[in-house]
Specification:
Length: about 450
């Protein structure tokens, strides 16, 4: 007979370690192997071959740089394109880029549209053939996904230090989520960005003085721009060392990129790519407010008036969120739940009002799940909202192989609703002055 005493390890640090081991085996070994060798987790997700991998753009950024052709790094967007220039049907490759892609066996697939310094960081990939580089990348992203689970558990420990069973549940819930599997299957950079955000938030909570928090902010900023969301929180927390490290690392990477690539790729990115990246995307995996409006209009183009209105509301919402963080600066500075709520609010709003927020971008909110676990213990209403927010984000229905589950239009934007719920809970927490678990003050 199984007694409570025999199951006591579940409520101890041993249970957390076991959860981390299971998560590691799954994320860093099993899922990358299934994603590359099988072309996707076929029993559950829609099948797809290597041409569907986002990895091609990262590999080509490295190849272009090694070939000494930084002038060929970026494509030329089509004037009539309805999507961002990273899509093959929305831009024309530079002839040198096209030739190098043909030689590498990459072909006509996703284009490199990240900031120029990202190509410099990806440069080591160019020393491997495409298929071997894909294996290395998939294993690396699996490690990043596991690191996100690890740091989310540490954030949970700062909020609920004695709740080992809940921490184990959080780690396993994130590791075995369809969201995590779909993200790794796509071989995109999202797990690295999510790890970087978790690293930055964890450093802010611990009052860390080392460079790792700054590295997280810089990498998340280069990857998808979301690292900048942690800078106001570092300012409120008076983490001057992190801010100085962030400034110094950013300047060093920028200088190195200019020395290696010259000014032309930066001009191409600022003048050609960035304006086109503001183009809202109608694809059903877009879980932003723009994506919802596209689906509500049966995929027809959004009138300029609607786009302008949503953009203005988005800027106003982010400004209001920053004002709220400043008004609650005392709680954000001293209370871990308030700091996590501020990070969750800014991240969720950036996803809601982004021109395109692919479903796998919801991985950015996984570190905030630790705070949602804490929030769920505060009241019955918070419990329902927190669990619903996690459930809506946990499984991207657009990835389910059986398309009948997503034929109902509102269901196609379920992750958007999860982001809104998360932002609502975060706003409620910041409006409350009752402190939570305290944090070490930075020296």
């Amino acid at each position: 007979m199984i007694t409570e005493r025999k199951l006591g390890w579940i409520h101890s640090a041993l249970g957390v370690r076991l959860a981390l081991v299971l998560a590691f085996v799954w994320l860093a070994i099993a899922v990358p192997f299934l994603s590359v060798y099988r072309g996707g987790v076929r029993p559950f997700f829609r099948p797809g071959g290597p041409d569907n991998h986002d990895f091609a753009q990262y590999y080509m950024g490295a190849v272009i740089l090694r070939a000494g052709r930084p002038d060929a790094l970026y494509p030329t967007p089509f004037a009539t394109a309805r999507r961002n220039p990273g899509w093959p049907d929305s831009s024309r490759m530079h002839p040198a880029y096209e030739e190098l892609a043909r030689r590498a066996g990459v072909g006509n697939t996703h284009r490199f549209v990240h900031p120029p310094p990202m190509a410099l960081l990806l440069w080591p990939l160019s020393f491997l053939p495409y298929d071997k580089a894909l294996w290395a990348w998939s294993l690396g992203m699996g490690m990043c996904a596991w690191g996100t689970c690890l740091l989310s558990g540490r954030i949970h420990a700062a909020l609920l230090p004695r709740e080992h069973a809940a921490r184990s549940a959080l780690i396993l819930l994130a590791a075995f989520s369809p969201l995590m599997m779909k993200t790794l299957r796509g071989a995109n950079i999202t797990p690295l960005v999510s790890l970087a955000l978790a690293l930055g938030l964890s450093a802010l909570i611990r009052g860390s003085r080392n460079v790792w928090g700054a590295i997280g902010i810089v990498v998340a900023g280069l990857g998808k721009g979301v690292g900048a969301l942690l800078l106001p929180l570092a300012f409120v927390r008076r983490q001057w060392r992190i801010l100085m490290w962030t400034l110094g690392l950013s300047a060093a990477i920028l200088l190195a990129s200019l020395l290696v690539m010259g000014i032309q790729p930066f001009l191409d990115f600022l003048l050609r790519i960035m304006p086109a990246m503001n183009q809202p995307d109608p694809f059903n995996a877009n879980q932003s407010l723009y994506g919802f409006l596209f689906r509500a209009r049966a995929g027809t183009a959004l009138p300029p008036g609607i786009v302008t209105t949503v953009r203005a509301v988005g800027y106003a919402a982010l400004t209001a969120a920053l004002v709220l963080v400043l008004l609650a600066r005392q709680q954000v500075r001293e209370s871990a739940p308030h700091l996590c709520a501020a990070a969750a609010l800014l991240t969720a709003l950036s996803l809601v009002f982004s021109p395109f927020a692919w479903d796998h971008y919801s991985l950015y909110l996984v570190p905030a799940w630790a705070w949602l676990f804490w929030e769920a213990r505060q009241s019955r209403g918070a419990l329902v909202c927190a669990l619903l927010a996690i459930a809506l984000i946990w499984c991207p229905l657009a990835a389910i192989r059986d398309g009948s589950l997503v034929r109902w239009m509102p269901a196609q934007s379920h992750m958007l609703l999860g982001h809104l719920l998360c932002a609502g809970l975060a706003t409620r927490r910041l409006c409350q002055r009752r402190p939570g678990p305290s944090m070490p003050m930075p020296s």
